[in-house]
Amino acid sequence: MIETADHAGIAVLTLAHGPVNALDLELLTAVPEALATVAGARAVVLTGRGRAFSAGVDLKRIVEGGPEYVERFLPALSAAALALFEHPRPVVAAVNGHALAGGCVLAAACDARLMAGGTIGLTELAAGVPFPTVPLEIMRHAAGPALEAMVLGAGRLDPGRAVAIGLVHEVVEPDRLLAEALRRAEALCAAPPDVYAFAKRQLRAPALERVRAARDRDDPEVLAMWSSERTHTILRDYLAGLSKNRSQ
């Protein structure tokens, strides 16, 4: 589900879960577990296997699992994103293809983001669901003023546009992606680990304060919306539209 490799003390974690690394409860639970297993690594590179970094939430599982599944899924999504966001060592996203919705959030939770192709964006509103507090605040930290257009427009950005708004730091050729991600991670290791971790905590403190302030207020409403029959009807129609477009 998540493949782990070591490159001179830098851990490479590869999402390897189906054709597009769709985010389900099992994959999200595996993210913090994988990070814990490489806690001693000097840095982490997160990438995907196949044509996508992650095409986002497995909406079919949301519909099939119903409210009970959603109640477990949403906290797992927040926990996975926070595990990346708060990891004390350098974390670099090597975005090898589409990074959509939750996949975009996981990339944004990393310290540096390199992209080799595909599109990146927040498609939640197009699917009829709102953002939990943690993903929203991580995206606010990463995208800044561009976030409102990303959320409300529910669109996809090509790599060049993603660089222009600061969401992605560099576009690289696909065959150079891993090497460049490792190079970027190595450069971030130049600072002493405790100094890097402290600076990272300082930079992330405003986002985490917003999470603490809003989570208890907003997340119950988010859960209710994700769990509602109206939402599941929208998701079924959305999935049917995707299937129809693929067949044409």
TrEMBL record:
One of its GO terms (molecular function) is catalytic activity. One of its GO terms (biological process) is fatty acid beta-oxidation. InterPro entries: ClpP/crotonase-like_dom_sf, Enoyl-CoA_hydra/iso. SUPFAM superfamilies: ClpP/crotonase. Pfam families: ECH_1. It comes from the Bacteria. This is Enoyl-CoA hydratase. It comes from [Actinomadura] parvosata subsp. kistnae. The lineage of its organism: Bacteria, Bacillati, Actinomycetota, Actinomycetes, Streptosporangiales.
